[in-house]
Amino acid sequence: MPRKPLMLILLLIFTFFLPRDYAIASSEFEPGGEPYSGLPICQPEFYADQTSECLPLGPSEVLSNLAAEGIEYPAPPLPASHPDKSLTELTINLAKINLPITENAYIYGSLDGAINGGESGKPLQAGEIVYVSFSEQVSVNGNAYVSPKSGGWMRASPISGYSQFQGLTFSETPQQDFGWIISPTRPRSSPDYQAEELDYEIPRETVVQIYDIEEVNGTKWFMVDLNRWVDDINIAQLIVNQTPPEGVPGDRWIELNLHEQTIAVYENRELVFASLIASGVDPYFTRPGLFQIYEKKPLETMSGAFAADRSDYYHLEDVPWTLYFDEARALHGAYWRAMFGYEQSHGCVNMSVGDSRWVYDWADVGDWVYVWDPSGRTPTDPGFYGAGGASHKRSCIGLDP
Prior knowledge:
Number of domains: 3
CATH class of the largest domain: Mainly Beta
CATH superfamily of the largest domain: L,D-transpeptidase catalytic domain-like
Structural class: mainly beta
């Protein structure tokens, strides 16, 4: 037999009868080799006890660290669903006045008067945002004309739609915080603007669970998936707190978080509803404090101006599902608003039509409304705030986004 094959056979026999511990130890000293403990890496899952069958490293180590902080990954699905879609429906017809703020709109006694124009009509001041509720509409030469519920005819543009966004109702309180993506964003691989930006985008209004929170260089970061981080500019966190606010005697209340722009509704100390809002923008803040709902109105017309030259005038008819809680400040639907999760109003708390209907149906006069800003940015001095209405009218609508 040739010498080379014979040597190979002897080497295999020697290795086969070599003690296992010696073989493993020898591998640790091979040039360029990596230490080997003799155990495989554990499967990517959490191990409550130290295992002797594998090494809990890599993904297993990450999951174990999360578990030590009381974070379960992957978390159970949120015990939540969207409310019935029928809540987004309005039984009114609405039209927008599209004129410069320096030009008045006119309501005429007849359709012919509206078509032909002239100065004989009744002026309706134009402004930053003006909507009318109407009973009839016609189209003449490609132009739309509507008959406001108050009578007459005018040129206006019937709206074909409004935000269909809806929050979540809960069958039980979730065990950890969650939130909404409020601006399309690409997550990063770690909580740092210098970290890798991943090659997919999370759409706006996506509901995400929050597994961890870290603050890096003054920015708060949220882990929304394993090693997937989003900064606080692009997410609205719903902070679950089942303890009634100080001063609330019962187990039923509404909480408005001005920093996160969220609403949470609690009943029997359980979270039953949560969503995004649009509260007062600087300097027309929504006032922090503890209030009670004192009036419910299914439809309300609001108008007024805050600027001395009335350049921010607005007129909105049939604002739906209004709940007054702080003088002229109210929770209500905002059919003119395209997005929620940002400060935008003149002091009221705007919600989507569907969300406002859910809260309106749930709420009773006398229910508590707790308004707070965990960032401390919103003024808390009562002397800073007036009644909240413009020109002594019960209105607090913001500008069109």
